[in-house]
Design goal:
The complex is a heterodimer.
Chain A (H helix, E strand, L loop, with lengths): L1 E8 L1 H6 L2 H20 L3 E6 L7 E4 L6 E4 L8 E9 L3 H14 L4 E6 L11
Helix pairs in contact in A: 2-3
Chain B lengths: L2 H24 L2 H22 L5 H21 L7 H5 L2 H10 L2 H15 L6 H11 L5 H8 L3 H18 L8 H23 L3 H24 L4 H14 L25 H15 L6 H14 L8 H14 L3 H15 L1 H8 L10 H13 L3 H14 L3 H15 L4
Helix pairs in contact in B: 1-2, 1-3, 1-6, 2-3, 6-10, 7-9, 8-9, 8-11, 10-11, 10-12, 11-12, 12-13, 12-14, 13-14, 14-15, 15-16, 16-17, 16-18, 17-18, 18-19, 19-20
The chains are: A alpha+beta, B mainly alpha.
Chain lengths: 123, 415
């Protein structure tokens, strides 16, 4: 079964990291990613740019409304996501714990994936 | 990250909001700052034990406010102190503070705090120093190091700036729409100055000063989150990101400045460029052009060019033309001339700058550009005179070195 691990964190905190702090977290995460990739469990990994770069299209009206900023004003923001292939929720939680140890603070939301199409856009 | 460094990151990110609210409450910079300091000390004691509060800024505002009131009472020797539990158990109080201080208050508080720092009475260097002290929370020593002055001199500069601000009577009621946009413009200009303080540093100072660029970008993103629909704030953020993206390519191993056209573009930070380009796209959609949007668009054309020869100089010439109409200045015209020379030949560039000779006679870049145009047109003797004039006006050894290279080219018979 495929799961998405949605990464939430306070972007004020993440944006306050120095380049060195950011690099250190990314290096620790890379070690976890590499192991997961070897085990054939790791799908696409996405880090999103800050929500200040976001645009929202409200399509519940006609014509749809374009709004600057993220869909929801929340204390912690969606900053990225993983796709992993695992046998059970326990296994995903274990992976999430490992990722969390490398990158503390915030929360991971684990969501089973319904449809997954790899698509054709270049990585 | 260890516990303490995590707390540090939270305190840094909550600082602007908390100090801003405390300033509204106490209407005094020193008192707001001290209250925040006290709240931080209590956070360092309480958070490792009890875990972080749900809303760090609200916690710090509440605790800081109570602590400062305690101090005032103690000084007045009035009544008994409130029991410590009242201050440390904030779970309910915190929620109600969050409700009372809604997003609009936060927005105007932080804008006011930034605006206080860039009061028009303050010279630019004082504005930046004050912002770094009050908004960013840098120590006087850190700021002194960034400005290459002694700790005492910086302490004096900040004290003087605070005294001026206290006399200036910045209004505390919610600003009108016009006031708000004026404040935004002043704050944007100050953040650009802050960025440039870091950006114009040579490699030797880059360690202590490059942090100024990071801080300017952090504050810009903060401002943009507060005013997410302002195209000029999007564009200023984009402009800083696009310039900062070139950091690693700007100096060679000897520490000399590498000009844009000679930079190794592989070293440019693609993430920062992507973010900058995304912000320009968003800004342009509003169809309310402004000077930062034009400057960001120029930076974007450089960022988009895979190789220097792919640069769309014709478009850059047009954009500088638009900037000239919006903000006429001889320096903008000079920049335009450089683009025009690339797009249409050195004669076009030279014609554009000749009328500026009076105004820019004491300006390094004017003589440097003029020399380069003359050299390209084969007017070697005039070029040599211009380069000699430029070298006498160079502000940094790197600038002088660059002109010396040009003079060497002139000296060699094949140039």
């Amino acid at each position: 079964m495929q799961y998405a691990i949605l990464c939430y964190h306070d972007e004020n905190v993440v944006c306050a990291w120095s380049k060195e702090e950011d690099d250190a977290v990314m290096a620790k995460l890379a070690a976890v990613h590499e192991r997961l990739a070897r085990q054939g469990k790791l799908g696409p990994v996405v880090r999103l740019l800050p929500t200040t770069a976001a645009t929202t299209l409200r399509k519940d009206r006609d014509p749809p409304l374009v709004i600057d900023g993220p869909f929801a004003e929340t204390k912690e923001q969606l900053l990225g996501f993983y796709v992993v292939d695992c046998g059970s929720l326990d296994e995903v939680l274990e992976i999430a714990r490992e990722l969390g140890a490398a990158n503390p603070g915030g929360a991971y939301e684990i969501r089973p994936i319904g449809v997954f199409k790899a698509g054709s856009a270049r990585a | 990250m260890t516990d303490v460094s995590w707390i540090d990151a939270v305190l840094t990110s909550a600082r602007a909001q908390a100090v801003a609210a405390l300033l509204r409450y106490f209407r005094d910079l020193d008192m707001a700052e001290e209250a925040f300091q006290e709240a931080c000390l209590r956070a360092l004691k309480s958070w490792p034990k009890n875990g972080p509060p749900r809303d760090a800024a609200a916690w710090l505002i509440m605790v800081g406010k109570n602590a400062a009131i305690d101090t005032v009472r103690r000084q007045r020797r009035e009544g008994p102190l409130p029991p410590e539990e009242l201050i440390s158990d904030l779970s309910d109080a915190e929620a109600s503070t969050v409700e009372r201080i809604d997003a609009a208050d936060y927005r105007d508080d932080i804008l006011r705090l930034l605006f206080v720092c860039c009061h028009p009475d303050l010279p630019a260097t004082q504005q930046i120093a004050l912002a770094l002290r009050i908004v960013s929370g840098l120590s006087t020593r850190q700021i002194a190091r960034a400005f290459l002055v002694s700790d005492d001199a910086m302490e004096q500069r900040i004290t003087r700036a605070k005294a001026r601000v206290a006399k200036a009577n910045v209004p505390f009621e919610a600003p009108s729409a016009v006031d708000r946009s004026e404040r935004l413009a002043a704050v944007a200009a100050m953040l650009y100055l802050l960025f440039n303080e870091g950006y114009t540093a040579g490699i030797a100072e880059a360690g202590s000063r490059a942090a100024l660029c990071d801080e300017a970008i952090r504050l810009c993103r903060l401002l943009l989150r507060l005013f997410p629909t302002e195209p000029e704030i999007m564009a200023l953020t984009a402009l800083l990101l696009l310039q900062h993206a070139r950091t690693r390519a700007r100096f060679d191993s000897a520490g000399s400045v590498v000009l844009l056209e000679e930079q190794d573009r592989q070293l440019w930070d693609r993430n920062l460029i992507a973010e900058g380009l995304a912000l320009i796209d968003k800004a342009v959609r509003h169809r309310r052009p402004g000077p930062y949007q034009i400057q960001a668009a120029i930076a974007a054309l450089h960022a988009r060019a895979q190789r220097p020869q792919d640069t769309d100089w014709g478009e850059i010439d047009l954009l500088y033309g638009a900037l000239e109409r919006m903000q006429p200045s001889p320096v903008v015209t000079l920049n335009r001339a450089v683009a025009a020379a690339k797009a249409h030949g050195a004669t076009a560039g030279l014609e554009m700058i000749e009328p500026l000779a009076g105004k820019l006679d004491g300006y390094f870049y004017f003589h440097g550009a003029r020399g380069a145009f003359l050299l390209e047109l084969g007017r070697r003797e005039e070029a040599r005179v211009a380069f000699n004039r430029a070298i006498a006006l160079a502000n940094t050894p790197a600038e002088a070195a660059h002109i010396r290279q040009q003079l060497d080219r002139l000296a060699s018979p094949l140039a």
